[in-house]
Amino acid sequence: MRPSGLFWNRSDVLGTAPARPGSIWPTEASLDTRNVRPFPAPQARQETATPSLGLTRRMRRNRKAEWSRRLVRETRLSTDDLIWPLFLMDASEARTPVAWMPGVDRLNIDEAVRQSTHAASLGIPAIAPFPFVDKALRDPTGSEALNARNLMCRAVRAIKAEVPQIGIICDAALDPYTSHGHDGVMEGERILNDASVAILVQQALALADAGADVIAPSDMMDGRVAAIRSALDASGHEDVQIMAYAAKYASAFYGPFRDAIGTNATLVGDKRTYQMDPANSDEAIAEVALDLDEGADMVMIKPGLPYLDVVARVKDHFRVPTFAYQVSGEYAMIVAAARNGWLDGDRAMMESLTAFKRAGADGVLTYFAPQVAQKLKAEG
After folding, report:
1. Which residue in 215, 205, 201, 204 sits closest to 170, CA to CA?
2. Measured in whole angstroms, how far is the alpha carbon of residue 292 from the centre of its chain?
3. What domains are defined for the chain?
4. Catalytic residue numbers, as ranges
5. Element (H, E) at 213
6. Taking phi first (over 0 means left), then psi (-120 to 50 degrees means alpha), and beta for anything else, what does residue 169 get?
7. 25 within 8 A of 345, measured Cβ to Cβ
């Protein structure tokens, strides 16, 4: 008997389906369909002649063949649209799997350099590294974020030395470094805005000094873009860009990411006092306007697919470089469904990213970046 409830264990329906070598998707033969009941065969119907509708315009004409569909296609995805998030760790082993994100690994610095080289060879314009910080280095103020020899700074220097042509986008946020898992410093249960911004400014300068091309404040503290822009300019980093996480929502889709950077076990409470309410989109317009006024060069909406309406509103309203983050939960859902044989992984991957472009995004941070780039390259 099937367990009750909407979300039952996948093993009650289908067996585990391992991916074929070199792919995140399963082979058809690996799927266990013993417990799946087939749909009943359709009843045969008597065919009858149908008179023509006499239509002057038939929309299906342009869809009749692949060559025609290509000619009239409105939205195109390219490798120029991709930013690849990477997870870093300070370890001797090259890789360790991220349990909640099948197909994604944490990388040591040497392996991150190799993967950045691979990204450049595929034509991916930029990477976005995120650190898994040892718990012993985390404290209430996130002081390790200011260490010029921390994991992020060392990785940025190493990647820039070997792959200078690739862009490096670095988060300014304290959650990987704080013992409580928040993006700012705390006083009791309250997140201190201005004190947090002062630390974020120093973190941004450390990353810029290491060679970061773009600082991406993801903390959602008020006024942080202006403070970071001012500090960068005063320190000789006028050319370092700012990609503001301008509309970052307090979302349920971040869980696998927090596992990847190790904050799922440390986070105290939630982030709803500084990240946005998922019910609001007018507020997103106000947030974007503030960040642009404060000096942001580009803006980002996070998460992605559940907020394509916000992406479209921001692009239509401001006409500035607008990005979206296909977050860990979005990635995990597609991969999990594909590995169980519930959907075509390649098609879902490409369709989801095309949707970002159709909504108006100029680029997407996605864990699918290397697979998409390889597929686009193979298709010529």
Report:
1. 215
2. 22
3. 79-379 (3.20.20.70)
4. 248, 302
5. none
6. beta
7. yes
How much is the pLDDT for 266? 81
Instruction: Report the 10 Å Cβ neighbour count for 357.
Output: 19
Cα distances from 60 to residues 54, 56, 68, 228, in angstroms, run 14, 12, 11, 52
Looking up tokens 């030395």 gives 161
Pair 344, 338: CB distance under 8 Å: yes
The confidence score (pLDDT) of residue 58 equals 94
Q: Measured between alpha carbons, how far is 287 from 292 in angstroms, rounded to an integer?
A: 9
Predicted local confidence at residue 50, as pLDDT: 87
Q: Are 366 and 76 in contact (CB under 8 A)?
A: no
3 state DSSP class of 90:
coil
Segments of the chain with pLDDT less than 50: 1-16
Cα first-last separation, the chain: 49
Q: What is the pTM of this model?
A: 0.88
Q: What is the model's pLDDT at position 30?
A: 57
pLDDT at 22: 59
In the structure encoding, which two tokens stand for residue 289, read together?
């306007």
